[in-house]
Amino acid sequence: MANNQSNSPLTVSSTPPPPRKTFLQKQRAFWASKQNRKRAIAGYSFIAPAYLLFVVFLFIPVIWAFYLSFTSYTIFTPGEFIGVDNYTRLVNDGAFRNALWNTTYYALMVIPLNISISLCLAVLVNRKIKGMNFFRASYYVPVVTSIIAASMIWMWLYDSNNGLINYALIQLGFNPQSWLNDPNLALPALALMRVWKGVGWNMVIFLAGLQSIPKTLYEAASIEGAGRWKSFWKITWPLLAPTTFFVFVMATISTFQTFGEIYAMTSGGPVGSTTTLVYLIFVYGFERYEMGYASAIAFVLFFIIFALTLINMFFTQKKVNYDL
Amino acid sequence: MKKWMLALLVLTMLIVTACGGDDDASGDGSAELTIWVAGNSAQIQETFSSIIDDFNEQYESEGITANVQFEPWGELDQKLSTALAGGVGPDVFMHGAAAAAGFADGGQIEPLDAYFDGWDDYSDFNPGYLEAGSVEGEYYVVPIQGANRMMFYREDIFQEAGVEIPETLDELLEVSEAFVEKDGSRFLRAATTLPTEGNDLQQVWSAFLWSNGGDILSEDFSEAAINSEEAIKAIEFYKGFFENDLTPIAGMDGQGDQHPLGTGEVAFTFDGVWAIEQILAYTPDAYDHVKVAPPPRGLEGTTTLVGSSGFFMNANSDHKDEAWELMSFIGNQENIEKVSAELKFLPVRLSVADADFVQEDRLFSEFVQLTNEVDGKANPNVPRWTAIRDIVASSVEEAIYGQLTPQEAVEKAELEINEELNR
Amino acid sequence: MNKKKKNLKQFSRTTGLYLLMAAIAVIMLWPFIWMMVTSFKPNTEMFSYPPTIIPNELTFDHYVQAWRAAPWERFFLNTTFVAVVITFSSLLLSALTGYAFARLEFPGRNFLFILLLASMMIPFEVMLIPLYLIIVNFPFAGGNDLWGGGTGLLNTYSALIVPRLLFPFGVFLMRQFFLTLPKSLEDAARIDGCSEFGIFWRVMFPLIKPASATLVVFVFSMIWDDFFWPLIVINDQSMMPVQLGLQSFQTSQYTTDWGPLMAATVWVTIPIIIVFIFAQKYFMNINVQSDK
């Protein structure tokens, strides 16, 4: 069991890969050991309850939706199997291309900002000093503020004529902006709000990640004369890799699937500048009832997120090669 | 370890079965109806609950009972279409009439012509509201709320500017400059506020199109008619307010739920009755200055938008006759008056226009008066309407933002609408 | 002298730290503070320009009005019940499953894990109708036989709880944290003759308390904030969650009653903040020893 962790593509490990064997050989060798058998049975039974729920309430709906993406299903009519027509229709759909671009732009703004700010916040609050409980809680408040109320408050802040942000800009001598009504600013404005709403979530995960790094490592590093900056890059960053990977994947998923505030604040406008893929799925699926076509968009989105996850997995594996 | 697994499994099973529902009522002559009402504010719940209570009392002997549920506006569509797709939709539901064609096309709602035949109340309904929910000559809706748009204006601001309400839309655009007050680039007062996207944009703009004598679709709904001189004129007029700096593109209605007429930040708007309540709730002092009038004439006269929301019957209901009893009960004189009085819904029955509560509210009664006098037109009920509506709105929007010329906008709309109609 | 200088340096550093954290706190809390301030203003002052930071006139009317607008006691009871059941069950499920994916080897492990991970990447909008049909046709519940016929789990607490017991992100989170634990702990326990479950339950699970606390906070706040799913599967108001109460201030398609909405948002948000503050003491729990 020396390679307990090493053959997982997602883990960070430096153990060299064992010599290649065929699949059958591997299986036979694995099941030959009593200890392996015992542990594998434990593994299957540990995941069984969760997997039962997974299959019924997630996997089947996903496969179903995947099937629907090859049909002309329209909520009220079953439709028929039309092969890849929905997917070829996507290629020429200007609204889809626009949404694809908006989604990419939005993600490029939100994900890096979200991850870097939340990591900084986690490092900042990862200490035991008086009043820290208050600061941590206050950074988490946006996460738990209902999206309905948060959207209304932000619409008001962004209001071009009477909003607080423009009021502040005018007082400071800047030009007021039309924020949510300016095709160039609306998406960045929504991105800013998403960062505000999301950093607390990731901060908490990073904080948990920082807690699992043994203190002794920092002590050793400081004896060797490493500064804070150096020990961050030499110890914190590499040991945080599993956490960072988690944060990245979750941030990607949640950013690509943002819907609530777009629905409440801009309805995809002005001139389609905040129509993201998920918003487009909503429009096609629930306003025009073309659920088959909407499903096809959903699976394009899926492949994008999945590809990004794989790329990140690849980098995480390559970069992290620590011996401490 | 095994004990744990077992406990977990048992727990899961327990939750599934123990909480599993137990109610299953069907058959044996009696009927249990479900009705969904759009909106779940305390007032809406109170009013409709009491109507349904009355219904249940009156129909107890016949074994009909109705359960009412209130669905928030924002999620109504998703919940309704999901439930209908699952075959467990309500027997009767409230929805905007514009969706009628989509539902009818999917076989989800029942035509009501047969029921209307023996229904005396029919003739008291404002024909425009019934029309708004009819598809290919068949009626589908019992209206509960009218949704017209009129012109509201501030009399004091007009006087201050020395301007009379002009005769035509073009003149309105010309005189509007007199209302505008600015501080740097910030509007202290704009001439008006106009929606720049979505549903609202389509509703306000279409009234100008119709007033010019144009239309979105051809008479028989078979093709787009939007590529016309009238439509271009309507876009130019609409766009004129932004181009001439008479109103900001971001609108003047961003301060929470206040109405800009109430605060005096605009001189006129094209709004529905809801504006009256907003003015009363947040800026009661302004009420006396606000007046309502028919919008000025376009090239061909004045046509306003007529819409309605009302109750539809689920085509898959097991108790259609009973459902009709419920629908006609809600639509009776007494209940329409109750709903209109308590919720300030625009009355859908002609006789309600004279009711006391209407007369007590000056603006409300003037508005009701106008809805019965001014020409009105409903959006076309075609199955692809929601998509067509989006096309109209986004084409006009692109023209407003200067991404397309009015000519290009109507050409684009024509092309896309025809594509939708042929899908 | 030197010591004094060091103290001074320490002092100014701490002050700087506090100033920085306070500044960030103001930015993060601003919309919420603004919401609270607004909730105490009368309608006529609510939207005045320039905005008043401190209300000229204090009123509790919006709170009274908001409390009357919905059966809040019932809503709070429902949400708390559902959130507590889901939070603890899903913590256990996620930990068990995440542990297996991280520390136990079995054929198909990575495939099964990636499948779980991938399922999160599908937007919920397109899964809604299939999932709804599963709920409606759930065998042997709500008047259903094996092939349906009734309303299944629709309009039951089960519909609120069962489909949301498993959060793939919870499994993912737990897995990532179990990966960081040193292997020697597990080996030592194994030599002592601990069963596989015993290793998980007595040795490993207690070591990831920060992650468990994180998961508790996340799941609790997700359930607390979710309004869409309950709305879809519940018809009976007596089972509805607190978030539905917030929806009831939309008085028509075009208008919203701001004051009561802001007031109600304040009391809907506070319980989760309390949960967060309680969970905090587990965020800082250092008892992992390094053996690498």
From TrEMBL, chain A:
Broad class of the protein's primary localization: membrane
Membrane topology type: Multi-pass membrane protein
Ranges for region Disordered: 1-20
Keywords attached to this entry: Cell membrane, Membrane, Transmembrane, Transmembrane helix, Transport
Location within or outside the cell: Cell membrane
Domain of life: Bacteria
Protein's UniProt keywords contain Cell membrane: yes
Transmembrane segments: 41-67, 105-125, 137-157, 185-210, 231-256, 262-286, 293-315
Biased composition (Low complexity): 1-14
Residue ranges constituting the ABC transmembrane type-1 domain according to the UniProt record: 100-312
Protein family per UniProt: Belongs to the binding-protein-dependent transport system permease family.
Protein name: Sugar ABC transporter permease
Organism encoding this protein: Evansella tamaricis
Organism classification: Bacteria, Bacillati, Bacillota, Bacilli, Bacillales
Automatic annotation (TrEMBL), chain B:
Keyword Lipid metabolism: no
Signal peptide range: 1-18
Top-level lineage group: Bacteria
Alphabetical keyword list: Signal, Transport
Family annotation (PANTHER family): MALTOSE-BINDING PERIPLASMIC PROTEIN, MALTOSE_MALTODEXTRIN-BINDING PERIPLASMIC PROTEIN
Similarity remark: Belongs to the bacterial solute-binding protein 1 family.
Protein name, entry field: ABC transporter substrate-binding protein
From TrEMBL, chain C:
Keyword Ligase found: no
One Pfam entry name: BPD_transp_1
CDD domains: TM_PBP2
Compartments in which it is found: Cell membrane
TM spans (from-to): 16-37, 75-99, 111-136, 156-178, 199-224, 258-279
Keyword Transmembrane: yes
Keywords noted in UniProt: Cell membrane, Membrane, Transmembrane, Transmembrane helix, Transport
Principal location listed in the UniProt entry: membrane
Membrane topology according to the record: Multi-pass membrane protein
Residues in ABC transmembrane type-1 domain copies: 76-279
PROSITE patterns: ABC_TM1 (PS50928)
Family, similarity comment: Belongs to the binding-protein-dependent transport system permease family.
Descriptive protein name: Carbohydrate ABC transporter permease
Source taxonomy: Bacteria, Bacillati, Bacillota, Bacilli, Bacillales
